Amino acid sequence: MITGRYPSLRLRRNRKYSWTRRLIRENDLSVNDLILPIFLTDGINKKSIIKNMPGVYRYSIDMVPKVIDKALKNKIPMVAFFPHTPFNRKNNLGTESLNENNLVCRALKIAKKKYKNEIGLMADVALDPYTSHGHDGVLKKNYILNDETIKILIKQSLLQAQMGCDVIAPSDMMDGRIGKIRKELDKNNFQNVQLLSYAVKYASNFYGPFRNAVGSKSILRGNKKSYQMDFSNSEEAIREVALDIKEGADLIMVKPGMPYLDIIKTIKEKFKIPVFAYQVSGEYSLITNAIQKKIINQNAIFESLISFKRAGANAIVTYFANDVANFLD
Ligand code: PBG
Prior knowledge:
Layout: H1 18-24, E1 34-41, E2 47-49, E3 57-60, H2 64-73, E4 78-83, H3 103-115, E5 120-125, E6 138-140, E7 143-145, H4 146-163, E8 167-170, H5 177-187, E9 194-201, H6 208-213, H7 235-247, E10 251-255, H8 261-271, E11 275-279, H9 281-292, H10 299-311, E12 315-318, H11 321-328
Helix pairs in contact: 4-5, 7-8, 8-10
The structure holds ligand PBG.
The site of ligand PBG has 12 residues, from helix 6.
């Protein structure tokens, strides 16, 4: 008798050859899902190594076109700029963020001029690459001031839009900044600039190598727990996203990535909004380190990225973007 169970039912039948596995595949990864972070540094013709991020470099502004050419060749839809600000330009208020000749502004200007709308340009809005204490906002008496910080973030956002930024990504976790930034952008005729809110950003231990890359690790005083989320929470993530959508977020970021796939899935199912995931620097380090030591093989990169697609992410910010684009090719 044929029944709906073993031995007549055998799920392995559908997996027996590559062609059938391909036919029943539920999720796939393509270059359209990738966002490449680019670290920027002062100097000319400079490419500097970042501790614990093998294969990732900081580039001087003159090298940005070369880096973008490669991303374009790989058909990557968007790049994201992050600056390594020289320490002598950092202060308590992070005023370098408002300098139209800072690293991010220069990169945006050059890239927009050269590539027009061939590739998306994204930039973080937050003060941590610019403050002398390494926090994302204005520090007073050991507390990050919310409303004072927003005043600066609004100006930073407008400036980046003026420089040609397509997707502005507030990553600071202050309350209420999305609405205020949207208002300022609209007021200045930047209705088409997209807002990608890092709505769900955890006070994570996986950001270490990134903080090194932007030069905030050794100067960071204390931790970011009074503004970034407690990693024990998921209901709070829903509240954060609901608020940012109401305030006008076009896209939602969940960060870090792999330890938070449950959050990606919940947000996607609940809000039906484009959700981006950030596979952060610590995740990158762990995987590259294990590959270099031959503990795991290269295909683990692809597997790690597919996990985001399975969870429901539309796109992934990943330092593996170029590697995986080559692999997909
Ligand atoms: C800063 C910011 C951080 C990252 C992206 N934007 C670090 C932090 O919040 O301390 C981390 C990215 C990574 O680890 O790859 N607002």
